[in-house]
Amino acid sequence: MRTRLHCCAMSCNALSIKEKEHPVCTLDVNLKVKGEMRLALCLVGKIMKKKLVNRDVFMEVMNKIWRVYGGVEIEPVEGNIFAFYFSNLDDMQRILKGGPWAFVQAIIVFDKPAGASEINDLKFMYVDFWVQIHNIPLICMTKEIWMFLGGMIGKVHDIDLGTTADGSGSFLRVRVTMETKQSLQHYLRVDLLGFEKITTMLL
């Protein structure tokens, strides 16, 4: 994909001065508005897998999994990159908040196109995760400390304000944004009292 886009960019740069002086047309305002409205309900997703996936199977599976009330139009773009056009903002936000999503054991990373940006301008750098933090001492049972702990993992977007219990004890849930190149942590190490006594919390 990168090679093809790079060749396209080189071709544009290679235009002669005379070719670059051709008349420039301005898009009709009504057409621009329609394009912006469609773009506002668009997500571009990349399946983080080197091997090309079966496009038809992917589109069929995602439509079944998401069950978007207003429907979603999925269009292949390039390689493992797809454009998702929703009919309303609620559906699009629900899919974003319901992630992360995966296909054939590979995560799908979304980016939001804007303006006249091109596909090669999208970086697919960030993904949101719900993370469980286990082994939390009682001194940490405040929202502010939860925000601090979540901030050690990534940018905090949401917190499950009630700790949850399972067979291994209580744990906290935080939703954080992480870089796709960032390795997933397995624990946090915190000096809670400033006495160099380290508390380890499992993720």
Automatic annotation (TrEMBL):
Lineage: superkingdom: Eukaryota
InterPro entries: At4g02000-like, DUF4283
Protein name (record): DUF4283 domain-containing protein
Provenance organism: Acer yangbiense
Domain DUF4283, residue spans: 38-109
